[in-house]
Amino acid sequence: MSSTTKEATASLKERVRAFWQANPCGVKFADAPAGTRAFFERVEAHRYAKEWHIPAAADFQSARALRVLEIGCGLGTDGAQFARAGADYTGVDLTDAAVALARRNFELQNLAGEFRTADAENLDFADETFDLVYSHGVLHHTPDTARAVREIHRVLKPAGRAVVMLYHRDSYNYRVNISVLRRAGARLLHSEAGLRLAHLVTREPVESLREHAARIRADGRSYLSPEEFLSRNTDGAGNPLTRVYSREEARALFKDFAEVRLATHFLNKRWLPVVGMILPRAVEARLAARWGWHLWIYAKKGEKSTEY
Ligand SMILES: C[S@@+](CC[C@H](N)C(=O)[O-])C[C@H]1O[C@@H](n2cnc3c(N)ncnc32)[C@H](O)[C@@H]1O
Fold first, then answer.
1. Pick from 203, 232, 261: which residue ends a domain?
2. Which region, left, alpha or beta, applies to residue 274 given φ > 0 means left and ψ of -120 to 50 means alpha?
3. Is the CB of 265 under 6 A from ligand 1?
């Protein structure tokens, strides 16, 4: 990597860190003060009501007695399920904010777990340390995702498993909602009346729409570029980096693993006007298995460790 590319990557990483430090993932879904018992209970209830596929897809129970590393632990909501299931759990996150909240979550529930602030691309763990590495909605936000996947492979024991969720390129959310509907809707944000209309139609908070509008005013060309539009229209207008992966791209990322299985979940029904509200779960699950926004990668490391 040239020194200019290294600097650009470092500054992007710093912007990623600063965004998540200021906006710990999931905080906006709870109406109780951050760090309180009520807050963690509401975050958890909201998570598994909205993303009801997670417990089955992550199969927390299968981690009993395993040494588990979670990369990008956020508030420790999934981490707590691993710990309750009897895993020997370690959670890392790029931000001190997430690590402090996840640690607090475990303390309030009397759960055992280790936490560290760490970068997925440079893990401070010895080779072949963990039986299972889990990472949900994280590695599409880091500048060098391939490097993070190599780190997962390195820290896994032979025959260890990785369970990783990345955003899915061939999903309804990316192909239709983000690339067509939201892009068309961005035109409304040029005027106050248009912004109000966008709020009425989408229920997206006015402050969030105003942040998008300000970015369009500041530099519309760059905001509308495919990469930036995707980043700004997934986890908040301030989010500096998001990528999406097709099934083929995911397989290529995990090429060093001996076995790879893929599954897609979660339709993000907020963006399915009217129909989304009345869709039975069975139908939703069938549609999500093809067009879901969350691409789950189940990868197994070979029995013998691979040299780098
Ligand atoms: C969308 S949140 C997901 C949190 C949690 N896994 C969940 O599903 O709720 C993304 C998290 O990834 C973390 N993150 C981003 N880049 C990272 C990196 N390079 N190393 C470790 N964590 C990272 C952020 O700090 C943030 O907490």
1. 232
2. left
3. no
